[in-house]
Write a structure and sequence with these properties.
The complex is a heterodimer. By secondary structure, chain A is mainly beta. Chain A has no helices and eleven strands. In chain B, the strands form two sheets. In chain B, strands 2, 4, 5, 6, 9, 10 and 11 form a seven-stranded mixed beta sheet that branches. Chain B has a four-stranded antiparallel beta sheet with strand order 1-3-8-7, with no helix packed on it. In chain B, strand 9 and strand 10 form a beta hairpin. Classes of the chains: A mainly beta, B mainly beta.
Chain lengths: ~110, ~120
């Protein structure tokens, strides 16, 4: 079966750095996405990785290792507004998105 | 990024009635649209994939006759929840793929449906 694993909840301090991990087992791989979702709102796109390595975009970076079926989202200089759920999703061989359950990130002052 | 508009954002309806949710791609042609359902503190559950001009492909366990999907044009897909029941209360989200940009799926704002 297809499976995406990410921690249920994480807590971090404002101004700090946090890394959210995602491991996956899917039938085929056509890219990995990270989305941010605030409560009651739809997900918003953060990053996309299809090749191994690190993609940096401002305070957010995303890393992919296809051989290990592993990705992480790195958030730097955390702000209170970063409190949200972060969803990892993999596009499989049928070009469908397989979603993780999301990681709820709590930022404390 | 591309814009997907979903309407209404919130709707309350009585049991037994039907509710239509619209999903529009505003600045691109969406050959494929996806309908998701999300329960509180849960991840997105794909309900169906709709391709313009053809019948939607439903995921296992999703009732086709209850959740009617129409994708009549390249910019509009609709989801109709028929004979709604309280257990249909949920957050429904559509997303659209811009055929020229396979790297992203753009999401609508979501619809909070409450059936009383």
């Amino acid at each position: 079966g297809q499976n995406i694993d990410q921690p249920t909840e994480m807590t971090a301090t404002e101004g700090a750095i946090v890394q959210i991990n995602c491991t996956y087992q899917t039938s085929g791989f056509n890219g990995l996405f990270w989305y941010q979702q605030h409560a009651g709102e739809a997900p918003t796109f953060l990053s996309y990785n299809v090749l191994d390595g690190l993609e940096e975009k401002g305070r957010f970076s995303s890393f992919l290792s296809r051989s290990k079926g592993y990705s992480y989202l790195l958030l730097k200089e955390l702000q209170m507004k970063d409190s949200a759920s972060y969803l990892c999703a993999v596009r499989d061989s049928n070009y469908q998105l397989i979603w993780g359950a999301g990681t709820k990130l709590i930022i404390k002052p | 990024g591309a814009v997907v508009s979903q309407h209404p954002s919130r709707v309350i309806c009585k049991s037994g009635t039907s509710v239509k949710i619209e999903c529009r791609s505003l600045d691109f042609q969406a050959t494929t649209m996806f309908w998701y359902r999300q329960f509180p503190k849960k991840s997105l559950m794909l309900m169906a994939t709709s391709n313009e001009g053809s019948k939607a492909t439903y995921e296992q366990g999703v009732e086709k006759d209850k959740f009617l999907i129409n994708h009549a044009s390249l910019t509009l897909s609709t989801l109709t929840v028929t004979s709604a029941h309280p257990e249909d209360s949920s957050f429904y989200i559509c997303s659209a793929r811009d055929g020229d940009k396979v790297t992203e799926a753009f999401f609508g704002q979501g619809t909070r449906l409450t059936v009383v």
